[in-house]
Amino acid sequence: MWSFFSRDPSKDFNFEIGELVKGLDEKSVWTLHKGKRKGTGEEVSVFVFDIKSGSETQQEIAKGAVKRLKTLRHPSILTYLDSFESDKVLYLATEYIEPLASHLEKLTIEGAQKELYIAWGIFQITRALSFLNNDGNLRHNNVNIWSVFVNSSGEWKLGGVEYVLNAQDSTNITIKIIPSLEMYDPPEKNDPSKQRSITKCSSDMWGLGCLIWEVFNGPLYQQSSLKVLDKIPKQLGPLYCELVGANPSSRPNPADIITRCRKLGGYFKNDLVDTLLFLEEIQIKDKNEKNRFFSNLTPHLDNFPDNVCKHKILPQLITAFDYGDAGSAVLAPMFKLGRLLDEAEYQKKIVPCVVKLFVSNDRATRSRLLQQLEYFIGHLQSATVNDQIFPQIAHGFMDTNPTIREQTVKSVIHLAPKLNYNNLNVEVLRHFARLQSKDDQGGIRTNTTVCLGKIAQHLHPQIRQKVLISAFIRAMRDPFPPARNAGVLALAATQQYYLLNEVSSRILPALCQLTMDPEKSVRDSVFRTIKGFLGKLEKVSEDPSLRESMEADVNTATPSLSNAAATWAGWAVTAVTAKFYRSQSDTVKSMNPMASKMLTKPASLEQPSSSSISTTTSSVTSMTSLEHEEGSRGNESVSDYDYDHWGDNDNWGDMETGGQMASSSGSGGGGGTSDAASPPSGSGTNKITDGWDNEEWGSLEEEPEAEAEMTSPSEAWSPTEVTPIISETQEHGVSNRRSVNNWGDTEFEPLDEQANTTNHKLEEAKKKREERKLMRQKELEARRATRTTGGPMKLGAKKL
């Protein structure tokens, strides 16, 4: 029983007393300590007064401060939590704070950010004084840098309430028992003639002037320093002079100061003050005001101090979202500020909001979520993504709004690393297949291909090997040029995932179809990609042991893109991973820009360009490498194939028939034109199983029937049919070449043999071709008799 009375009563205090906080030495009757709330560990500050070592007067002041602070509740006044008194010590627990003087010394922000922050702090102290003087009818009597504290949110709080008196008691002159605080006394204290001019706020306004000077210059040591205005902002200059004026009656009321400085151009009129005041009053704002405010908030956050953003603005945003009608507009600033939180805080504060938002059917909310996905996806657990978030996102693939569909596609980039096997390899690819082939928006089809190339590393090896080539070749047949280019770039960027047999049998034939694409950008990408794949095959041909290393990533579950970036396809990796295609309109560029004019002389046969090399040499004979060809093409002809290469010894009999039937697109009537350069689309190509047009090479345009003979050897060459060159001698020509099996007699008229074409039309077309062939054959035989003997003509040589 005696132990109960002899134990330390301070143990009943709900807070643990921590280390001493320096800064209040000889400036207060209190000492400031860090503290924690027992049970929760919440950080607090504890003011400690040692009763045994203090005088009676100091003890009365300390006790009076506790009573006064307990009754004062204002956002800009120090928040009281608890107090405890024993015969040895007096404790006063408040929110966690630090002295303003120490805070300003450690302040790391500079420039405009610091200006905004200090303006907000001075505003808060002015507001607190207005509350005391006008609403509470009290005088503080101790306003200076030592009576102001800063909490974790960066808010300035007015403390030091030891000398607060009733404002009506103007005859009672406050006597401060701390000698170092006497320099803050107003001049009228020692001048009886001016004491009649004292107002309820005059002494506090003098203190506010001293505080403003100290904020910009450091602690005040003598009153004469108040005359130095060098560091006081020009906006505050006139007001500061009024505050430290000798006449008490000329000092303004704090409420008037706020009104003046909140006007346009005033010191308190800035983005930070406006933002924080709006958040304090957000409960009384209507929905339109909230949406307008949140929509404009994000760009300003970079100019606000981090501690203000994290502890003041972000909690207000979360509260506005949870309990208000802020809507989706709050998402952008909330996610931007979420980066300031540590992982535990993020899981506690932001993740529940995210999960709740994804359930929303509002399109605006869904759109903003998808746009901001990259900011919060890294903080979400895989189970949360797969079970709660992805099922909601997947609805966006089938949304009727193109913007939602496109943003959903792009979001897969960020989701892929966290998706499980079924969601990624089954669900996502099922939606991608439909969007890439059936979506009416060219931009969405393009971005689906880009996205598939980006997530290739996350796909299961078996699925990847099965899907990628088919998907990218499909993209290369798209009527939308950026979609075709995306397919080519994606093939190059993912080259490490393909077996060399697939490269030679599927990828290269598909790429060759685009070497005559009407879009220059597509052709450039195609030639670079072909060159790289051929170089890869050539290396393996020279050293078969390299095959294993080149196919190492094909069956690897987690291959790295760094290996691909270091190879020839590095340019494609950069192109694919740089940016998505920006959708603009639904207009699809025509795949047939040459359909309305005759192809009289292919430019690729006029000079040995990279295009001509890749087309002619790959059509006629095998080649080792495009790099080798380009290196020696300067002054040489494209090919040195002579007469013997096209001789009668070769069996061309089957090709003659095939040459008439293999064209994949064009018109069936005489004098019509065909699309010679465009890659075949899914609906415009009819497969013919004669062994030649399976690769869908395209065809040259048909000559007009009225033209009696070809004007140059190059006109008789068709990359579609891979046929020998036919020379047509003009009246004064000196170069000629022998016809091979009368192959040149044909008009190369392509037939579009669709499934619905009747046998009657086919028979008519065949008869017309036979008639024209016979006529041409007779003309050639007549001319052949008068022809002079000449050497073989070089491929690509110009007529004389």
TrEMBL record:
Extent of Basic and acidic residues compositional bias: 760-784
Regions of compositional bias (Polar residues) in chain numbering: 726-744
A GO term, aspect molecular function: protein kinase activity
Disordered, as annotated region: 601-800
Compositionally biased intervals (Acidic residues): 692-708
Cleaved signal peptide residues: none
Comp. bias (Low complexity): 609-625, 674-685
Listed InterPro entries: ARM-like (IPR011989), ARM-type_fold (IPR016024), CIK-Related_Protein (IPR051177), Kinase-like_dom_sf (IPR011009), Prot_kinase_dom (IPR000719)
Domain Protein kinase: 18-268
UniProt record similarity statement: Belongs to the protein kinase superfamily.
Record PANTHER family: N-TERMINAL KINASE-LIKE PROTEIN (PTHR12984:SF3), SCY1-RELATED S/T PROTEIN KINASE-LIKE (PTHR12984)
Biological function: Regulates COPI-mediated retrograde protein traffic at the interface between the Golgi apparatus and the endoplasmic reticulum. Involved in the maintenance of the Golgi apparatus morphology.
Protein name: N-terminal kinase-like protein
Organism field: Zophobas morio
